[in-house]
Amino acid sequence: MQDQTFSRLAFCVTLASWVAISCTPAESDSNNDGEGGGGGATATGSVSSTSVSSASGSGVATSSSVTTAAGTGGDNSGGSGGAEPTGTGTGGAGTGGWPEGAIPMGNAPVPSAGCGKATTLTSKEYTISSSGQNRVYYVDMPKNYDMNKPYRLFYTSHWIGSRYQDVKGQDFYFLKPQLEADGEQAIFVAPSSDGATWQEKDHALFDDIMALMNENVCYDTTRVFATGFSFGGMITYSLSTNHQAEIRAAVGIAPANYNIWLPEKTHKPIAWMHTTGMSDGTCPWVNNEGQKRGAKFIALEKAEDNGCTIPDNIPTSNGAYSCYDFKDCDPEHPTRVCTFGGGHTNIDGNPNWIPIESWKFFKQF
């Protein structure tokens, strides 16, 4: 297991040299995809003990078969919800029931429309029509799936130049083993981009996939979580700025707030955590102080949106990892940032603390 962990770390170090374009400042407006849109890069490493399919900028999945799931997504408005916590969404993946997404900690599950119905979805690759394209995504279903149990659902986005296969190869950012160690199971969804980068259309992809999931599987609409590494962390951040009604909490792993398409931000609260290596030259803590580019400014934005007290300086660590929990945040919207003396990676330490802290953050809801 130790050799496997160091193999993964070596891959991430190698990966950093060619994913650097994902956070390199573009000369154009930072709201564009910038230099992250080249595509065509091929990953040669392995992220798990088994080989993963090579990544291609062509946007074509490398697995041997694709099964098409019927259905189209709802709009971005989410569910209408009821006046009581029992309200369920219609159209999008709406949570309903509480104003402004202020869902109390430890609330009773709110079942999706798919609860109580047999599902045809199993653990495999699917395609869906979204924004006029056939898009590929992977669904990982719990063993002995219970159609009457509202599971947590994780939406996991890959890094630049990779595919869903790479995220699956890492057991969905190593979260699945963390849940299983606690006797828990969840539904994991891992989409593939249509090229090397995540774009505006991938907001619609999220809506479309979640609308299909809402009708076809049983999950807790108040416990939809999002996470991703590097460019995956950036699309996670992007989604968190206007999908607070659909996403309960999000964890960005080495994210940046530039060179990614950003919608008009609603600044509604959302539970948020992210990790940044203080030696990360790819998605740094501070890229440009004056332009507020860098992971530091994601933390400050989320803390402000969540009603937290903003310290004069956010405590950071250049050694062993340290997590800072912002003070006085809305009770429903904890806000945390974890820093460490490493580079651009989602693997640090033995055991790897990043999925451990991510799961600790997610499971409090």
Describe the structure.
There is one protein chain. The protein has 365 residues and is of the alpha/beta class. The protein has 7 helices and 10 strands. The chain has helices at residues 2-19, 164-169, 171-181, 201-216, 231-240, 295-305, 353-362, and strands at 67-68, 124-130, 133-140, 151-157, 186-191, 219-229, 249-253, 271-277, 322-325, 335-340. Helix 3 (171-181) packs across helix 7 (353-362). The model is unreliable at 1-21 and 25-96 (pLDDT under 50).
Number of helices, where a helix is a run of at least 4 consecutive DSSP H or I residues: 7
* End-to-end Cα distance: 30 Å
Main sheet: strand order: 1-2-3-5-4-6-7-8-10-9
The Cα radius of gyration reads 19 Å
SSE topology string: HEEEEHHEHEHEEHEEH
Q: What are the defining features of this structure?
A:
ten-stranded mixed β-sheet, disordered N terminus, alpha/beta
Secondary-structure map:
Layout lengths: L1 H18 L47 E2 L55 E7 L2 E8 L10 E7 L6 H6 L1 H11 L4 E6 L9 H16 L2 E11 L1 H10 L8 E5 L17 E7 L17 H11 L16 E4 L9 E6 L12 H10 L3
Parallel strand pairs: 1-2, 4-5, 4-6, 6-7, 7-8, 8-10
Antiparallel strand pairs: 2-3, 3-5, 9-10
Helix pairs in contact: 3-7
Write a compact overview of the structure shown.
This protein is α/β, with parallel strands linked by helices and 365 residues long. It has a ten-stranded mixed beta sheet, with helices on both faces.
